[in-house]
User: Which sequence fits this backbone?
């Protein structure tokens, strides 16, 4: 299992518009879209993680 003090990548979705993309998940739970500053056009959207890297699966 991955160290909880490390960041990892995950698939995430915007519950408002359904946009799906890859985010960096920081140890504090903060999600940051990879390769872009905004995930979607929605104002103040709270992203929801769909799954994590395959390396983190048992």
Assistant:
């Amino acid at each position: 299992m991955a160290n909880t003090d490390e960041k990892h990548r995950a698939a995430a979705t915007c519950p408002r518009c359904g946009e799906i993309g890859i985010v960096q998940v920081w140890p504090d739970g903060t999600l940051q879209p990879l390769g872009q500053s905004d995930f979607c056009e929605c104002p103040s959207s709270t992203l929801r993680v769909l799954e994590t890297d395959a390396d983190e699966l048992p």
About this structure: The mean pLDDT is 80. The first strand starts at residue 8 and ends at 13. The chain has one domain: 8-53. The CA atoms of residues 2 and 14 lie 25 Å apart.
